[in-house]
Amino acid sequence: MTDRVYNFSAGPAVLPVPVLEEAQKNLLSLPGVGMSVLESSHRSPHFTEIIETAESNLRKLLKVPEGHRVLFLQGGASFQFSMIAINYLRGTGKPADYILTGSWGKKAIKEAKREGEVNTIWDGADGNYNRVPKQEELNLSPDAAYVHYTSNETIQGVEFSTEPEVGEVPLVCDASSDILSRPLDLSTYDLLYGGAQKNMGPSGVALVIISERLLDRVPTEIHSMLDYRLLAENHSLYNTPPTFGIYLMMLVGKWLLEEIGGLEEMYRINQQKAGLLYDLIDGSGGFYRGHAEPESRSNMNVTWTLQSEDLEKEFLAEAKNLGLCELKGHRSVGGIRASIYNAMPLEGVTALRDFMETFKKSH
Amino acid sequence: MTDRVYNFSAGPAVLPVPVLEEAQKNLLSLPGVGMSVLESSHRSPHFTEIIETAESNLRKLLKVPEGHRVLFLQGGASFQFSMIAINYLRGTGKPADYILTGSWGKKAIKEAKREGEVNTIWDGADGNYNRVPKQEELNLSPDAAYVHYTSNETIQGVEFSTEPEVGEVPLVCDASSDILSRPLDLSTYDLLYGGAQKNMGPSGVALVIISERLLDRVPTEIHSMLDYRLLAENHSLYNTPPTFGIYLMMLVGKWLLEEIGGLEEMYRINQQKAGLLYDLIDGSGGFYRGHAEPESRSNMNVTWTLQSEDLEKEFLAEAKNLGLCELKGHRSVGGIRASIYNAMPLEGVTALRDFMETFKKSH
Prior knowledge:
alpha/beta, Aspartate Aminotransferase, domain 2, Aspartate Aminotransferase, domain 1, seven-stranded mixed sheet, 14 strands, 15% strand
């Protein structure tokens, strides 16, 4: 344990140590099974128990309505950008509304445009994507096929504090980088999705939670691996799923339920962690400059700049020497980014905060 | 170790113990890195080294020509069924030739038919898919977009001993269940693909090896996650890849190169293992009846029946008591199936053979 650094990577990201320890202990043989989960048939009784527990953990944590289906898919959020448009925009003759708050929203729009009319109903480009819109700024199309938004933009560090209100139109959300960070009520969403590699597990699994009414709208002619209904009917086992990723997601859910105590408590801790950094930035007299406007600040990805790129390089080098790693901002934005997902312990954030204070004093 | 069974699962399947042991040892922290591979950015220097080594191992093992690209994708072979047809059949006005030797070929054809004309140029249905065709039985279309075949049918247990000859038409092969089991010369193939979960690693990664001339034929309008050229240009990092699966593939390649000594030696061992079971079946006087015709027998999946389903149930129950697990045939074929991939040790096959002899004597 002593050789572990504090890993502020935006994803794949830090995982809870108890999760890694349990996976490590059983990596050659699950107790009473005699083989690794890595070697287990996805139709074996013990894997069935794993995937069912992974689902029931998520249903408890996220208040998933009974009629919504929980799917474990491949291809990450990027593949969902296409699957959503192919299933729900193609051939409808309706537009889809997209709220654009950063880099991931842009990628979602790029794929959707291949399938039909996309209305970018709000675009944060003017402010270099430093905030999310207010409800009254949204020009919703009453006949939209769906409204799509990105609850947290990993690269810019802006986050919706609550869902946009969209009436009867299906709400579709890319929650890759803040899912499980706070309580949600899934009855608000028709489709919530996210790659696992930030708050849920390793890369290679995408979670999709989808409503009955959207499942009913899947077109009849569609490739099997793009067909939400077929995948749901087969309980994510139409073909071989990423079994090890689902196993880790099961362990992460268990950790949230049993060791953290649920998402209310996780949210409290996440606010505390983010508050430590934002307070320091706000009190730094301009030495550190936050990218996001205060009311749009992300609890997951804290982004800021220093006065010069040279100073930022020095900051990153000194941080790394102290075991504070992966703090470089995304190449498209620059500056510094601290990703402080669920599994980043308070001690890691405190260590970063203390370093930032020291660095400021010495520069 | 003592609690491990012999796992004859068709996939996800047994992995080499040294691979599992190394992954276990480093699961909380890669040496000198301070974080788990599960937590590592796909753009970090240490993951770059992992994916580059995974590729160079495969290039050595499979004699991959320089111009061919090696891709690590998601969605399994099932997603490739669609990707191949969307990239290379859609809009060409040409037919695609499919050789149908079992269940997986049937699934590949189902997806391809969505995109254009499919000629099933040979269909093993008459013999209940108990053999592969001879070269002279193939009615190749001279103008085909490509020829597709399944080198080993996991469910039926039939395997091509060599590639069909297709002239200048691109040869596309689903090698999911026999890749890395014997030497191949990749210059014969324009596209060779397979899910990792049989001979290469865990589920959740698909290997695609693709020629330059096919990369040049990717249509311009295509969803990013379906675009072989885009995925190749980004070295499998267009979006976050399944990092842990690629890490295990790297370790499996290392095991084949360093501990086994390459694919010639692996092939010798695989023939020896399969020979033990087929010899016993042939000498059992009809007590065990092999499904595949001798010249089409698979070295990976050995399939047979007993005189009655009741006897098969008894066989499976007694085998399980001895730690010989996952021997039930696929529900679509019935009987018994022993999957004896690279990582199944000779001792496991010998134990199964000995049990089969004893069971025959006592029944």
